Structures are given as structure tokens and as C-alpha cells.
Amino acid sequence: MASRYPASWLDELRSRSDIVQVVSGYVALKKAGRKYWGLCPFHGEKTASFSVDAEQQLYYCFGCKAGGNVIGFVMEIERCSYHEAVELLAERAHIPLPQMVEDEDYERRRSRRERLLQANRDAARFYHEMLFQPAGAPALNYLRKRGLSDAVIRRFGLGAAPDEWTALTDHLLSKGYTLEELSSVGLTVVKSPEKEGGTVRSFDMFRNRAVFPIIDMYKNVLAFGGRSLGNQQPKYLNTADTPVFNKRKGVYAANLLRQERHLDHVILVEGYMDVVSLTQFGVKGVCATLGTALTNEQARLLRRFAPEVYLGYDGDSAGQHAILRGLDILQEEGIPARVLDFPDGLDPDEFIRRDGAAGFASLPALSPTAYRLRRLKDTTDLSDPEGRMKYARSAMELLLSVDPVERSTHMKALQLETGFSMETLQEQLDSLRHSTAPVAEKPKPPRPSVRKSGPAAAPDLAAQETLLSLLATGQIPKDMVEEKDFEDDELKSLYMSLVAGASSASVMDAAPDDEARSRYARILLSPTADSTDQLISMATQCLSRIRRAACQKQFDALQQRIRSMDPSDPAIPSLLMEAQEVQGKLDKYK
Questions:
Q1: Deepest of 66, 135, 251, 473, by most Cβ within 10 A of its Cβ?
Q2: Residue-wise pLDDT tens digits, 57-81
């Protein structure tokens, strides 16, 4: 996966992305000896088992066995791909990506993106400060009437766009931004000279609105949503797609969602106020789509934060239709889902302000099948025999792919709702199953392991692993160790990489899977030693154990071969002599 980047560039990226500093941004670390320790961010624990090795630039958790280098850590903590992790670290370290180094236009484009993001940050600061000034009083009154506290207002960075034509534009122009920049990022509307009698006319996009900044997981202000405070239409105005913002790829409150750890599920709602209100009441893991139906890109983003998604859309018909589409999207992406059932047609904001956090916690979370059956029932006239037959047939189609336990529950309910016997419903199910039976997929053979079992068993396997960790320190002579000292194929590969000059952090990128990556990290952590002499002494002991085990295996094999031969075989004397030499080596090791 690292082949698209030059090895030298990746080495520079890792050296300029100190793993202790990066991890400290997410985990409280304390130094103990030569390593740093903290509570693992990848599984719940009360005793610190998460270790960061500053010397080898690796992390490893002795609890859940997660391990890797700084790139792997960012992948895990940010729930992102290898490429995305590299891009994030490169941006933090201000290192141009190598595939763009020869692009003469790259620096100009990068600088432009940074200026546009900075313009959004300055705009967000302006709106937020304006909220607590006289010009922002209408917006502040609106937010407080909606039950929002000053604390949650500040947490979300909510703001006010004053009822003036050019308040923000004038402010940002005075800071050196151009009209073209403000227009391209959606903060200012610029009318062409042809339509304005030869003069350029510009005005603020958001006026007389409560403002909701849209911030990504990396704390970049990408865009804004504005809620009208008067009779303006539309009621909610959102930034259109810009060079730094694509509404299909993000969710509202992603910056806060990233701070949540060990979430069982993410709650996806429709509106900004739903997110803010639920958060104020202590509900965790809440976010919203950005003025559009759930997209595949958003679904994949949500999967980084939690294994399951709860859809908490409004109780009106539009919200219910959006739930069906959302369930289809989540199913396409292989993400388990549930649907929160809000009563009385309420939206999440209205419900939690009426029933509180306890009421929200007790809401039924319907399975996708249960929700689809409910929608199907709501659109069918069960007082009509034809309607009941249609409902039963359609319901059984939905239940065809459901696990047997859930299917049994729904079939019992269908029996009561339609009057058809369980035997009839089962016959319908069997008929559907036979008519739509898929061709059986040939099972895939298990992936072969690169590890050898048997020959390289403990204790010499443990000695081989320890020897590699000693070699990785760079403090023992490389000529002490030979390739034949490693019988395990994976360890032999690690040895070859280390003697070729690769760092411990760099060999992590070559790990074929998570299991191997965990093993590499555990092996390559710096061993505890007070001096180079002690490291060399430890290496000598490991080599003695490894080579003694190898000699013993060689001696046993010779003995077995000799015993299986005819006593008159002329090769026996030479084999006996070889066995005596091996026995001498064994005695020396002992």
C-alpha cells in the first residue's frame, strides 16, 4: 500500500511526525522508563496497557494487541485509509505529497485552498463574535428560545449574520481577501457587471440568520448553514459546493463526533438544531446530513466512528421516506442500522425537549425489517381481503433474507394482522425461496498463513523475536546475526529488511495484514536494557539458545537417519562423524 510513495519520502514523513506528539493529541501519555504509557484509545480499559516507543516510533497495546507506526495510528484513530492518513500527516508536517512535487501549479493550488479555509475560519469567528453584540441579538434570542445554553452555543461555534448587506464582506476585504476568493467559498454573492449596469455589486450570502458553521473532523471550517430569523426564504440556507466543500462527503458535527470514543452507534439526524439539542441533553455520537439525503460517501465516513448507525429522522412523511433511502444506502455499504421511532410525528429536537434525555434513551430502535414492515402496513388497507393478501406477499418478500429468529417474530405478528395461518405464510416463504434461490457461491479457501508452525516453536521462537528487537535498536553488530538464525519466514523477512537499513517504523508498512502488523509492533518494541553492553549480552544469550536448538534438531535428524539405515551402509561412518561434530557444538552451547 505504500508503493505509491517513495521510501525516502515516507522516511522523512515519519521522522517529521513524531509518534509521541501525534498520539499525545488523542491519548494522555505518561513516561515510564524509556516508553510512554496511556489508556488505549481502541478499547475500553482502566489500567494503562497502551505503550508508545519513542526510539522505534511504534505503538503497541498489550491489551487488544493493536500496534503499528505513526501512519497506522492515524489510520486507526481517524478511521481512514492509508492514503488519507499519509495526506493528513503530510499536511500537518507541511510536506508536499511526492506525486505533486513536479506539478508547477501545486503550490499555487495548495496556497489557494489554505486561504479559502482561512477565510472560512475568519468568517466563523466574525459570526460568533457578532452573536454577542447588539447586531446579533435577534439570533441570540432565537437560539435561547430554542432552549440552547451559552455553553452549547460556544461548543458548536454558533453565530449571527447581521441584517446588513455587506457586514461580513467588508470585514473580510479589510483582512486582505479578494472578492473572487469570498465568492468562490460561498461567503459573498457577486453580481456580474453586465447585470448591474457596468458595476460590480456584491453582498453577503448570509444576512439576518443564525449561523451554524460546518466543521470537518480535522477542525477545518468548510461551509455554513443559516437559519432565517424573519420571512426570508429558504428557511435554511446552506453553502453550495465549493473548492473546499462537498456536501455529499461530510456530516455536520464531524469535529465533535471524532472526539467521541468507543461509540456503539452513531445517531444520524436531519437538522442542525437536532444535533445541537440532542448534544445539549447529553446524547453522544450525533451528527446530521448536510441538506441532502444520506450518500454512500457519508455512510463510509460514519463507519469510521462506530460500527452501527441509528437513523433519527423527522416523523413527517419526508423524513420517513428518507429513512427508507438511508437504510438502502447503509445496506449497500454493509453497515448495520436501526431506526429510532419518534412518536406523534415529532422531530428529535421537539421530542427531547418534551420528553428529556430519559425519554430519548427509552425510544424503540427498530430493525430495518421491522421499520420496512411498518411502512408497508401503513400504506395497505388491511380491512380489505385483497389488501391483506398483498401485504402478506410483500411482507414475506422482505422476510426472505432475515435471520430465522427475527423472521419468526415477524411471522407471528403477520399471522395476527392478516389472519393467514403460520403454515400458509411458511408455504409462501418456501415458494419465494425456491423461485429466487441464488446460485451457491463457492467458498473461498482460507488465506494461507506466512507463519511456520512446528519447527520454530517456543522457546527458540521467542529468542528469535527478542533477537530482532535487539537488532532493531541498531546497537548490536549486524554481523553477530545470520539469516539462518531465523526459521520463521516472517521473522526472516523482518531480519532482511532491518539489515538492509530499514527502520522499525518503515517495515510496519510492509505488514500483509492486521495480525502481522500487531506482531511486528510487539517484536520491534525497544527491549529494556541499561547499556549497549547489556544489549549485546542479551543478543548473545538469544543466539546461544537459537543455535543450540538448531543443533539439537540437526543432531536428532542425523540420529533418526542413521537408525533408519542398513547397518552395512557405507555412508554411516561419515554420518556418525558429523553427528559427533554436532554433539560437540551442543556441548559447547550447554
A1: 251
A2: 999 998 888 899 999 999 888 777 7
